[in-house]
# Entry
Amino acid sequence: MALEDLVTVSNSTTTIDASYQWRTVDVVGTWLTDKQVLVRKQSYESNLGFWVVTPFVATSGVQVLVNRGWIPASGSATDSPIVQRPPVGSCELLGRVRLTKDRKSDKPTDLPTGQVDGIQPDEVLDGANLVSNAYLELTASTPQALTPDLQPILAPEISEGPHRSYAWQWIFFAIMTLIGWAILVRKELQDRNKTAHD
# Structure
């Protein structure tokens, strides 16, 4: 599905409906590398680093932020790692739709240039046709925009996990408790009968 098929424009605000979260979309356009930002305090396999978020302008004019991947932190908290830029010219990409989170505190004013504390589209770009409530997680592109210095953002594993086995364990414990209780009551009754006959 194309990005343009998901967006809704109302009162000059371009948004994507929340029901499209995790949907993979296709978009053709160009990267705005001069507006690229690093999102601080993002972890990958217990290592601290940054998300590399690069704006993308579709041929239709729709603008969307794209999380191209994760890069490890280097040096102090004020240092920004050097990130390879995505290819110049027309690019086709696939990305997962992710909804942004509302800001719960004031925007920091002391961050190093090019660093942000979260993905807030209107704080990175301005102008018409900017998707204001969502961004894309890059999954593939032609030409390749997931440069070798970046780790891809993997989709969460969707499984039942250990919950079913935990449920069976608790059912087993409950049954064993009832059986143990029944054995104790029976033993108590037998002891009382024996005492009464003696």
Q: What stands out?
A: The beta strands are 7-10, 13-16, 24-31, 37-44, 47-58, 63-72, 91-99, 115-116, 134-142.
